[in-house]
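ingest -> validate -> predict -> emit
validate: passed (alphabet ok, no gaps, 239 aa)
predict: started
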Amino acid sequence: MGPDVAHADAAHDPSDPLLERTPLPAEAALPVWRPAAADYYKTMEKVGAALMASIARSLGLNETTFDGYFDGGISTLRLIRYPLRDANAGVDLSAPDYWVMHNGEKRLIIGREHADSGFVTLLAQDGVEGLQAKNHAGEWIDVPPADGMLAVNFGQLLERWTGGVVQATRHRVIAPKQARFSIPFFYEPRADARIAPLPIAGSGDFAPFLYGDYLWEQATNFVEMAGVKGLRKPRGVAA
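emit:
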């Protein structure tokens, strides 16, 4: 779900898949759901902005450095269900890509290792374990789910924008013993935001790019987006 879930004036461009309207169920099918989703979306925008200001300060930048890029941003809200899976249902457990040993048990990997593509991700969990993050030593650690808490992942955009000073959070999901639900909010700038190097000590240089071009290239590499990459052409960066 995109910004139009919460903002009636959200940018709309039918020719750009990143600026299409969110397809939603009819209001009558889910009474009061839309205002609840809008309230949650707006609240996560405020949390993301506060975290963004904190990150800027920690990098020696003015806390408003990133603000303008997120005015009219295309942050995404997702509702995810990981169904309970039979460990022997159509998965070749001999392939190490599909399972791990966890506390002496063989566990399926139901969300493969990756880093989110955006700035930061704010993740609400339902109390069911399964999320793991990789630390700097390359070890997988459990992220304990807790009511009223948000897990925060740094995204690949934040890593690129800071020239590698801040590293994106590598994470995965291993199968719990019951169905699992999560609500990630991907905090993202405008599609036409021009991302260029910042004056951060120790940061690497990179060629400026438009966020929409970068996001589309990254997002369409995921298996659920297979076959759609050609639906959007790069917009390019003005000189």
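The radius of gyration is 19 Å.
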